[in-house]
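Open question from group meeting: does this chain pack into something compact, or does most of it stay loose? Before anyone orders reagents, we agreed to write out a predicted structure and look at it together. Recording both the input and the output here so the notebook holds the full record.
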Amino acid sequence: MPNMQPTPNFLWGAASSAHQIEGNNANSDWWWIENQPKSAMERSGEAVDSFHRYPEDMRLLADAGLNSYRFGLEWARIEPAPGEFDREALAHYRRMIDTAYDLGLTPVITLQHFTHPLWFVRDGGRLGGKGVDHFARYVGQAATILQDVPWVCTINEPNILTLSTRMIDRFVSGQATSMTVTSGVTTALPTPDPVIGAVLAKAHATAQDILRSRTDAKTGWTVACQALTPAAGSEAKFSEVKYVWEDFYLEQSRGDDFVGVQAYTSQTVDASGIVPHPAHPDNTLTGWAYRPDALGIAIRNAAEVSYGTPIIATENGIATEDDERRVQYTSEALHALFAAVDDGIDVRGYLHWSALDNYEWGHWGPTFGLIAFDRTTFARTPKPSLRWLGRVAQDGYGRAGVAAA
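C-alpha cells returned:
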C-alpha cells in the first residue's frame, strides 16, 4: 500500500486557462472563430469573468486549504497587435501573481494555453516562418513580470495544439468555410502533426532560454498524456502511436526542470490504431471512459521517456455533474500517483482540472470544476470536492482517503 505522503513542498492546487475563464478575449483567434456566423461553437462571452473576479477565485482555493494555483497569461491581451504591448495587461497579470502570493498560493504560470493573437494566425501562425520569433518576443515581455515565479509552463499540450493549429489556420485563412464542434463528446482525434510539433519544440526551447536568462523560474511544458495501453499482439503499433501522440513531446522534456503530465482517461491501441471509447453508462460528460488509473499510467510513462525529469500533474479531473463521483475519481487518481512516488518517481505536485466549471473549448456543458458558478450572476459556489481536496492537502492523502466531504 502506498504511504501517500508527499514532500513538504508538494504543490496541492487547481488549474485554469485564461481564455476559458477570463471572458471577452476579443483579440484572440478562438474568440474570432467562436463569433463567426458559420461557427457551430457556443460563445465564450464573459466566460466566468475571472478577469475581474480572480481574487475571489483564488481566495476560495486558499481558504479550502490548497497551496497553489495554475493560471495563464493571455498572449492576445499582452500583445494585441504585432510588437505592441499592453502595459496594463502585464500589470494585471502581475497583480494576479501578487494576489496568489498574498493568499499563500504558489503561482504556476502558463504562457500559452491553445489561443493565439489573431494577428499571429493571419501572419502565418506557427508555420509562417516567423512563429518562433513572434513567440520569443512575447515571452521576453512576459518575463518582465515573472522574475519571482517558481514554475512556468511554456506551452500547454503541444501535441493537442498541433491539431487545433491546423484547424484554426485553415479557417482563418479561408481554406475551410466552417468549424464544427458537435456535442462536446470526443471519441477520437486526428493524429498530431509532426511538422507543427517540431516547430513547437523549437519555440519551447527558445522560450526556456529566455526565461532562464531573465528569471529564476523552473521551466517545462505540459503534455496531454493518453495513458495508452496495447491490445494483445499490437505492441509495434502501440509504440508507433504512442511516439507520435506523446513520446516525441516527452523526449523534448529531457533536461527540463519539470514536465507537466495531463491525463484524464486511457485508451487501447490495436493493430489499426487508437480504439475509440465505446458508449457506456460510466463514461464522463466528454464521452471519455472512467479511468482514474490513467494518471498513474501517464506518470510512469513520462518518467521513463523523459529520463526522470521531475513531474507535476498539471491537469487531472473528471467531467461530471456528480460531485461524489469527482471525489471518488480524484481519490483513485491520487492513489495511482503516490504509488508511482513510492516506486521512486519524482512527482512535485497535483493540480486538479479545473478550479471552476468553465468554457470547454466550444461548449458549456462539461463540468470539471471544484467550484460551480452561475452564468447569469457569476456567483461562485464551492463544491464539496473542493473542501475534500483541501483536507487532503492539509492532512495527507493517506489519512483523508475517500472520506465523505
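Observations to bring back to the group:
The longest helix spans residues 194-214.
The CA atoms of residues 72 and 110 lie 4 Å apart.
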